Amino acid sequence: MIKTQDLTKAYGDLKAIHHLNLNLVEGDLFGFIGPNGSGKTTTMRILATLLQPTWGEAYVCDYSIYTHPKEIRRLIGYMPDFFGVYDDMKVMEYLEFFAAAYRIKGPARRKICEEVLALVDLGYKRDAFVTSLSRGMTQRLGLARVLLHDPQVLLLDEPASGLDPRARIEIRTLLKELGKTGKTIMVSSHILPELADICNKVGIIERGELLVNAEVAEVMRRVREQPLVKIGVVGDQEAAARLIEQHQSVERVDLRNGHIYATLSKDIDDYSDLATILVQGGYKLKTFQEDEINLETAFMALTKGITA
Fold first, then answer.
1. Which residues contact 220 (CB under 8 A, 6 or more apart)?
2. What distance in Å separates the CA atoms of residue 220 and residue 128, rounded to the nearest whole number?
3. 31 and which of 83, 95, 181, 199 could share a cystine (Cβ 3.0–4.6 Å)?
4. Tens digits of per-residue pLDDT, 246-289?
5. Residues 6 or more apart from 211 whose CB is under 8 A from it?
6. Domain 2-222 is in which class?
7. What is the pLDDT of residues 183-204, one digit of tens each?
8. Which fold has domain 226-290?
9. Where are the domains of the chain?
10. Rounded to an integer, what distance in angstroms lies between the CA atom of residue 187 and that of residue 261?
């Protein structure tokens, strides 16, 4: 659905994106992560045919951005990070205006507008002026607008930017629902835990270069090659740590935040015998689990905070 080949955008000697290669298939919910100025918005604008690359190629739904921009625009929904609304319009009038621009005519126009309002949970605001909407409601209205023509691909640039916690949860829930419909969604965000929750793939970009493009689980594995087991015991933690430290699969043991953290050798999949050793040693286990790395930790480990 989205494919780029050495996509590059240069402004003189400055490369906003450099040899970017992506391949997203139908149903992918792709989280695009990077510091400000890393090239996320530039990439989305090129895919939306609003910006020409310096070189390289990009395809959306098998159409080239060079030869079939009109066809691509019919198949995508692009929501920029900031967009204006018409102050003198009511919510329903706003949607009907854009539905008319998509050549949706007759009774079907009102029906589709009602459906997308219901999808984003704004039906009760259909007669309100758009200027009366909160930031979160305005973002949901923007999503409703890009869904009017039932696009196959959604390009959402920071859809949760500036939202309060409740509004972010609502946007996240909505994206999950859209992902279930089989649409291909590219979403950029700085709220990394939420991306990990909704996305099946992530791409980490810095200084215009794609550092990582993989399944979420694969990104975590790249950052932490060795398993780390978090153990909580009733009793003397230092003695318990010394007990398991002798095990052949344990490379290092640390005590912090009231828990024992055992770093294991590479390729260790079964570490249940550590629990057996502790129980046989007279300890009761409160916690025994692999300590999972999160997307924020992965992002900090893989990037340096450098912008283009």
1. 292, 293, 295, 298
2. 45
3. 199
4. 898 898 898 988 899 888 888 787 888 999 999 999 999 999 98
5. 204, 205, 302, 303
6. alpha beta
7. 999 998 766 766 777 888 999 8
8. Alpha-Beta Plaits (3.30.70)
9. 2-222, 226-290
10. 35
Q: Which amino acid is at 117?
A: L
Q: List beta partners, residue 253.
A: 262
Angle between the N-to-C axes of helices 135-147 and 165-180, in degrees from 0 to 180, rounded to the nearest 10: 10
pLDDT in tens, 197-236: 788 899 988 889 998 888 887 777 766 667 788 999 998 9
